[in-house]
Design a protein that fits this description.
Elements (H helix, E strand, L loop, with lengths): L1 E9 L6 H6 L5 E8 L6 H13 L4 E6 L5 H11 L6 E6 L2 E3 L1 H10 L7 E12 L2 E2 L8 E8 L3 E3 L8 E3 L3 E11 L5 H24 L14 H12 L8 H13 L6 H29 L12
Parallel strand pairs: 1-2, 1-4, 2-3, 6-11
Antiparallel strand pairs: 4-8, 5-11, 6-7, 6-8, 9-10
Length: 301
Amino acid sequence: MVDITVIILTKNEEKNLKKCIESFRGIARRFVIVDSFSTDRTEELCHKLNIELNEIGSCLDFYQNKWSSYADQFNWGLTNTDISTEWAMRFDSDEELTEELAIEIETKLSILREPINGIILRRRIYFMGRWIKHGGRYPELLLRIFRTGKAYCEKKLMDEHMILLEGTTFIFEHDLIDNNQKDLEWWIAKHNWYSDREVYDYQMIFKNQVNDKLEKYGESSRQAKMKRIIKNRGYYKLPQFFRAHIYFLYRYYIKLGILDGPEGKIFHFLQAYWYRFLVDAKLYECEKNSIIMKNPGELKV
């Protein structure tokens, strides 16, 4: 068993959480659930999962904390749940490990020595049951495993990343999977909420001149840094509304999202002509009516 604590944030995740925990195949010493007062059976499920994990020498501890942002919630979990394992891991309830990644974590993590303090994982996204392999969406490289006390989540409302305080990183070979079991209606509601967050974040960065660089002495994946530069210095410099069209053409045709079938077409179309266009529409409304977007708070669905 790996000396690692897996921190998972939840809000109404009874459909996803069991497969998420089971994907670790008993290799993790401890799971910490930080719940923002779910109204479904998430808490009940966590207690049942803890009983099952106790039988193999693992455990799942359930905490609740009022939501303010993902970063604040995750950092609260890091500092308020008595983590004593050598390693900690950020994980989402709609994610799961491939069998190969579970084996890789079990065999490699214990033999890594400092200054390697962070592990970057490869993420593949599923949409409506299909792996979105093209369109530039795979692989996403994310810093997810780190020595306890050596990293934290940057305090940013959108696209927040883990920041390594010292040391270097190592990239594992195998994938984690993002495969949410909720329906398209939930996806649309979530991305409507995301659009509010993005407009708020945009106003904080571009109107108030907030620094949006990954910290100078932090260590994250080069991919994360490059994405942020392209988004803030490239995408947002393009003409409003027209840039959503460019985004779709780039993802669907140039980066071959067309190869991902009907699900890929729906995914890339909604990402561009719904989500990205919606962000621009809300930015336009704010600029036209001198609206300062308020922090959208927690997702309500």
